[in-house]
Amino acid sequence: MKPRIPFNKPFIAGGELEHIAESVRAGRISGGGPYMKRCEEYLEEICGAPRVLLTTSCTAAMEMAALLCDLGPEDEVILPSYTFVSTANAVLLRGARPVFVDIRRDTKNLDENLVEAAITERTKAIMPVHYAGIGCEMDALVQIAAAHDLRIIEDAAQGLGACYKGQPLGGIGDFGAFSFHETKNVICGEGGALVLNRPEDVERAEILREKGTDRAKFFRGEIDKYTWVDVGSSYVSSDLLAAFLWGQFEQMDRIAAKRRSIAEAYFEQLAPLAAAGHLELPVVPNHCDSNHHIFYVLPRDMATRTALIAHLRARSILAVFHYVPLHASPMGQRLGYEEGMFPVTEDVSARLLRLPFYFELTPEDQAEVTTAITEFFGERT
Predict the structure, then answer these.
(1) How far are the Cα atoms of 173, 214, 313, 373 from residue 194, in angstroms, in the given order?
(2) Which of 259, 268, 279, 347, by CA, is between 20 and 30 Å from 339?
(3) Is the pTM of this model over 0.85?
């Protein structure tokens, strides 16, 4: 049965259908339409980037970044094991090797103190993942990358609107990748964007997105015909999705404010349980501005988490765990990794539980969630 309080519910801001209708009336619903341009310019302003390209997904954006880094079979890329499969797949699809590193206990992000030891003569890039919309320690990572002539691909799938020391996530490294999947703060069903923070990458990125052709130049009137000039794929977003996305961008401030209020309520209502040692709450460093993408708790062990999930489900509340560590997966084992190699990652994966979090979550429903959690631990003491 469908839970009464789901984990996620896609939010319709209000103007999406009107914008889609306008796109249809304009007669340009494929890539390169007016809404795509409008969304890209908006993201360029947010990130302070010379160019942002809308893509079919965040996965596509990271694959493009891997192509722009010229990754090949002799190369390695450092990334956390605690991430979605797309981060590693972008590397593997180029024939390169993902080199996993453990995460920090506080933010659940790539542990910058372990990165330098993982660098070899084959290392070509670092892929930090901004978990839950909380920034990785980018100053340290940028310094390491500069010292070893490496490129940085920010997996900012969860990070739009969040900042690290005042810098927008996705706009710090060489590349940033955003997701607009229906589970994210701002959505269009499926979609993403590639942030290009170095002007010299822009021309080739446009070619890669358009199946390896210089079609973008043709549409701008810079050439009289377009042709095949490089590798590439069909990474460009349709104007229909961009139209939907623009309706969300119009409500960015409203969405951000509501998510902040939900997160603050969770912190306040669950603080007594954290003080009593029953669970851990998210840690947001003072120099990070979160976009409140996820609210999670960490009970003491996996058994407690499993029991808590069942307790909530019995009350028609859906709470879910998150990533299975990539190094412990069947594919990770094929790459030579095994369980026990990254203890913090494995501990977090075994205990972390994500609570219901969506725009239309009412204060009453949220109070019901936290009351149920409080009752659960009360029954166990």
Answers:
(1) 12, 18, 38, 39
(2) 279
(3) yes
Per-residue buried b or exposed e for 92-120, using 16+ beta carbons within 10 Å of the residue's own CB: bebebbbbbbbbbeebbbbbbebbeeebe
Question: Which residue reads 């840690």 in tokens?
Answer: 283
Q: Which residues constitute the domain of residue 142?
A: 16-249
pLDDT tens profile 238-260: 999 999 999 999 999 999 999 99
pLDDT in tens, 119-160: 999 999 999 999 999 999 999 999 999 999 999 999 999 999
C-alpha–C-alpha distance, residues 183 and 191, integer Å: 11
Asked whether residue 210 falls in the same domain as residue 289, the answer is no
Q: Do residues 235 and 337 both lie within one domain?
A: no
Give the CB-side neighbour count of residue 259, counting CA atoms within 13 A. 26
Q: How far is CA 3 from the centre of its chain?
A: 25
Strand order in the sheet with 296-299: 279-280, 296-299, 353-354
